[in-house]
Design brief:
single chain, alpha+beta, TATA-Binding Protein, 6-stranded antiparallel sheet
């Protein structure tokens, strides 16, 4: 079941954290997205400030054709790229959660309503990847 927040879509998945990272990477690839960045938050917090944290990764996903289209229309939209996906193990109950940023919300920050259709198409692809889990 997918739920929505002000800025994203979230799904609790019946997989381990590691399986969820693999599966969302694969389903994003099916939608034309590649992972440009991968930030292991747990490892980073341990290394930088010696704090323990739950398994948590931030994946920066990009669909090159869609990114080119957006950048061609609004050069500064790169400040909002790539699309972030988080996968984490809920420390309260151990459930694995996958959450994806809502591109429609991101485009609202530009104030450009002419980009709404573009954002909707990106949102649909990301939603499809999330639903495939």
């Amino acid at each position: 079941m997918t739920t929505e927040s002000k800025y994203g879509m979230k799904r609790i998945v019946p997989f381990s954290y590691e399986e969820a990272v693999e599966k969302i990477t694969s389903t994003l690839k099916d939608q034309g997205f590649g992972i440009l960045t991968e930030i292991d938050v747990k490892a980073t917090l341990k290394k930088k400030i010696d704090q323990d944290f739950t398994k948590y990764v931030i994946l920066g996903a990009c669909n090159p054709a869609l990114a080119f289209g957006a950048l061609s229309e609004e050069i500064d939209i790169g400040l909002l790229l790539p699309c972030n996906i988080i996968v984490y193990e809920n420390p309260e109950n151990g459930e694995t959660v996958v959450s994806i940023v809502d591109p429609e919300m991101m485009v609202q920050a530009t104030g450009r309503t002419d980009l709404d259709d573009f954002a909707k198409s990106v949102q649909e692809k990301l939603q499809t990847a999330l639903n495939a889990l």
